[in-house]
Design goal:
InterPro entries: CLS_N (IPR027379), PLD-like_dom (IPR025202), PLipase_D/transphosphatidylase (IPR001736). By secondary structure, the protein is α+β, with helices and mostly antiparallel strands. The chain contains 18 helices and 15 strands. 48% of the residues are buried. Residues 70-85 and 212-220 have low confidence and may be disordered.
Amino acid sequence: MLATTFGTVMSSFWPHMLFAFTTVVSAIAVVHAAMTKRDVRAAIAWVGVILFSPLFGAVIYFVVGINRIRKQKVLAQLDNMLRFEEIRDRLLVTAVAPFSAPQFAAQKKLGDTVNRFQLLGYNQISMILSGDEAYSRMISVIEGAQRSIAVQSYIFDHDKVGIRIAQALIDAKGRGVEVRVLIDSVGSKYSRPTITKMLEQGGVKVALFMTTFFGLRLAYANLRCHRKLMIIDGVHALTGGMNIRQEFSATVMGVEAMQDTHFDVRGPVVHQLMLSFAQDWSFTTGESLTGEPWFFSNEALIPDQGVPVRCVPSAPDDMSLSSNHSILLGALSAARHHVRIQSPYFLPDTQMLAALSTAARRGVVVDIVVPGANNLKMVGAAMMAQLDQVLEPGCRVWRASGTFDHSKLCAIDSAWSYIGSSNIDPRSLRLNFELDLEIFDQGLAKKIEERIDSVIASAEPITLELIEGQAFLTRLRNKIAWLFSPYL
């Protein structure tokens, strides 16, 4: 009798109950978005999605719209790790003018404020200009490792290049080296089968960042670890924008090989890079990497001379949220002569657009290099829809020739440079876990400028006339893609 009555009520009133449930869930989602989003555009966008897609919009928001990382104690063990960072007073850089330029003194103060790592001297950095050179260097340092190897990558493909590096890691494990490999869960799925099975069968400890049974955990589906890092014995690092995949190897791909830039790093800043990896590994696995063989503070391991560098990790947590964004904005405001930027995915937000425009209007020459053919077609279309906003105030935009170039480089006034994994797009500047280096050195800045200028030499200028001369349907397609730029 009771079951019959319940069935009758449900059949008669289910539309009203569904409406009430949808209203309550949507109201909760709207209030949460309005109260927690720091960017008014993001708040308005999510409120619109929730209101105009009843229930479905709220579900989407709860899955990918909430930044849960800030609610996690990601840095719970960082204080303990920092006890191993026995930095002597002489390593701390207080004056950057002798290495860089006077106008970047304020930039150093900004970095001290928005980033948890201090500026350290006595570092040595060299540029790696191709995938083949980078992968050969990786194999070489792995084979020379004596105590520990830490590897972190967004993509680690199961292909000719990935298998070679995985086997080198397995061999290192076999001779007694401690090895840890951390791959992003989304990035691990770029190839089938994944490289993780080979590494695990070889005895290497490997983990996927932000994953759980049957793939991604929905609570973190929109957050990705985009960091690329290899650390040998705690004293030697390779970092930058290079994923581990054969698409960047001319030996494998021939003339179709994509381009990228990586960096070889030695000196005290490697300690900061290792702290970043240890934090991510602890967050993912619960295992603490402290002391030897991961961290070394022996003075003999510090080069006799070098340049000021700081590690800049950025992530969707309270301590490092938008660190990369703040540092780039500060550097653009310090520019006096020339800004050179190369980015594969150039989708700056309003603040970045304003900073670039203001620099150009102050008389600073601003050169922006984007790929001629983007590997992400929708991102390429969205970029074209937005370029008029930097062209109108006087920035110069160049479309590179040749194959896709994944390099992420910035150099200002032949005195300051910024390298690493960050793109100039909403995902890198707000959602991703990124890892960059801020470098106060004329020598490296000039080399990066030469690298960018060599691309410009064979590039095609993008002008307002070129953009306005596109077919209407092309411009409409680009604008539609641009509307989705915060989610690309």
